[in-house]
Amino acid sequence: MEYVIVSYPYNRNVLVDGEVSGVTNDTLMVETGTHTFALEEQDYQLPTVTKTVEDTTALSPLIISDFHPV
Q: What does pTM read for this prediction?
């Protein structure tokens, strides 16, 4: 398992590969590999972000901070 935090100033559901997987600013667990991330409410720039997630730990997750409010 890999660990990701999607950083955003507001609480939003996080979609990983089209499925709700948690909320922003919480640590999410995903499988190793390339995933597409989005937020459920589209009040931000960039509709999706694709990242390869590997070699993370619960103490050192991948931080995704690409989403910014419009």
A: 0.93
